[in-house]
Amino acid sequence: MAKYKVLTRSYIGGKVEEPGAIIQYDGNPSSNLEPLDAAAEKKMAEYQKQVGQRISASDPRFIAAMIDKQGQ
Predict the structure, then answer these.
(1) Cα–Cα nearest to 17, from 41, 1, 34
(2) Residue 62: helix, strand or coil by DSSP?
(3) 65 φ, ψ to 5°?
(4) Which of 8, 25, 42, 61 is most buried as measured by Cβ atoms within 10 A of its Cβ?
């Protein structure tokens, strides 16, 4: 199972994980997790390739895109 460090308070695998926690996780990793082993690195690379670059809801590009959508 892939091993990660939690970067931000997150709901993972049915429970809240605090920043700094080291977890084992088989799900799809997001930017809230830092890979700590080869399995996690591989899973992260595969998932990012599958979904493309992820944009946080607080990212100015996301906000601009939402404003543009509202104006259409």
Answers:
(1) 34
(2) helix
(3) -65, -40
(4) 25
